[in-house]
Amino acid sequence: MPVAIDNMRFFHAGPAALIARLCDLLKIAEIIDAIVDWDPVQCHLSPGTRVKALIINLLVDREALYHVERFFENQDLEVLFGTEQQIRAEDFNDDALGRALDKLFASGQLKKLFSTIALTAAATHNVSIEGLHVDTTSISVQGAYEGEGDLAITFGFSKDHRPDLKQFLIGLTVNKDGLPLLGQSLDGNTSDKSWYPQVIAELAQNFSPAKLKEIIFVADCALVTKDNLALLVQEEEDKPALQFISLLPENFGLNKESKAEAFRTGSCQEIGNLSQKKDAARYKSQSFVREIDGKDFRLIVVHSTTLDKRKEKSLLKKWAKQKETLAKAARELSRRPFACDADARKAIELFCQEYRHQPFIFKGTVTEEIESSYAKRGRPKKEEQPQNTVVYHAYIQVDEDPEAMAQEKDLASTFVLITNLMDTAAYPDGEVLKEYKEQNAVERQFRFLKQPVLLGPIFLKNKDRVEAMSFVFQLALTLAAYLEYRVRKNLEQEEAPLILPGKRKSTNPTARALLEMFDYLLVVKQGPDRALINYHGSEVIRALELAGFGKEIYLFPPSGGG
Fold first, then answer.
1. Can you say how many angstroms the Cα of residue 97 is from the centroid of all Cα atoms in its chain?
2. d(C-alpha 526, C-alpha 530), whole Å
3. What mean pLDDT is reported for the chain?
4. Considering the entire predicted model, what is its pTM?
5. d(CA 119, CA 170)
6. Which helix (H) or strand (E) holds 363?
7. Which long-range contacts (CB under 8 A, 24 or more apart) does 255-264 make?
8. Which of 257-261, 438-442, 473-477, 520-524 has the lowest mean pLDDT?
9. Which of 12, 213, 421, 441 would be 178's cystine partner, CB 3.0–4.6 Å?
10. Residue closest to 192 by CA, chosen among 161, 154, 227, 222
């Protein structure tokens, strides 16, 4: 609760005022209120205002839904929402927020709402949308979910590594800076392969044919099916063929063929580093044109000097298992007696032939041994003598083959990109690879979304509200992405890096780090006057200015309401 001393109140402001102004800048409440059906006469606050409140709560102090009212008791509501509506903390109680979520879902326009807000923000900031990156992530949930909505909260492939929990998915389309442009909630068992056609259709709905011709669609290997490839290159009256870049799946025969040809010819061109980091990988590549279902595609075989840690771990595990299997097979072979030296050597030859593709060296030897046995089974008679027989045993020593392992590691460090950008002069291998590597932009947003402080377990028991709340999560992510973008863009014009808490220097601070910078801002209010208390010095105010604002956003209510 705020403290009152002689008409003086203290508020734990944090980044709340900054988030509120960004909400206003992105016109989030304005767009929601224009599309969602609501009655200004009967409703004290609009659904857009309540969504704005949820976004502030999510990004400042993630709480379960029934704690939002308590959160706003310690916030300066006039600064966040303006003075016109005389908003109180109890306006954000459980029931009021639940009704706002119900109105969002009842609109049936969540996907349209998100794209309208995101594309309006992109136009306002004049951001590039030439390269679009697409992916999904799973959101694990607990409990039984009711409601009549279309969202199926169910079991599916868990990117959270929680196959024991039900889930729904969030699909995002972002630009290379990680700024969301399209987004939607998906059934928990939706496969990326089946979702990509929906994304392609949505692109055609939201962009003109002229704009679609400029877009490069980037996605992971789930995009590459024969049906999806046909859809991408298909030309229609309102949809030209889409330019795309993806990863050719390992199970495509052309993957192995193109790698083998690149290794055989050895005529790769040097790309070099794509990053300024000291340990950054170096790349080289070779391009081929190959036909799939009557259409030509460009395959780019890329070799990296750095093996992905997961692949390296998998490779080491595979080699250890192979060696264990070989040692067992060699032991079993050594126990078999052969009637002659030639048979034993033939067995060694067959062993080497069977395991010739594994990265090990085999050294076989044959020994002659005398085995004693009796004519009949059981206990021999006292005077019975054993019969001596000459037998031959095959022994195989298994050693690692460093050269073969190095080649296999080289092969594992190689991947194949597929694209229909056929003009190698306009789009050299290095540029195609660089655009594909920007896929990290969407993965970075998912990492932010999945941080427990932001998302955490969802305890909304109605699946309609879960879908509406997922929409709010996507908006919160969008707002955080624009905070990061604005600060980074303005920081490019300055020589000095931003000093983050802990005296860390950064020229590309993350949204999370920026939000944490404002955590300890306090506002003291006495009568109509306010003062900002900043315990972390000038860098906090500098970050605020880099975001395009000043400390006045904490000191004065917005003109015309929030």
1. 29
2. 6
3. 88
4. 0.83
5. 18
6. strand 360-373
7. 255/416, 258/288, 258/290, 258/299, 258/301, 258/416, 259/301, 259/411, 259/414, 259/416, 261/288, 261/301, 262/286, 262/288, 262/301, 262/303, 262/414, 263/410, 263/411
8. 438-442
9. 441
10. 222
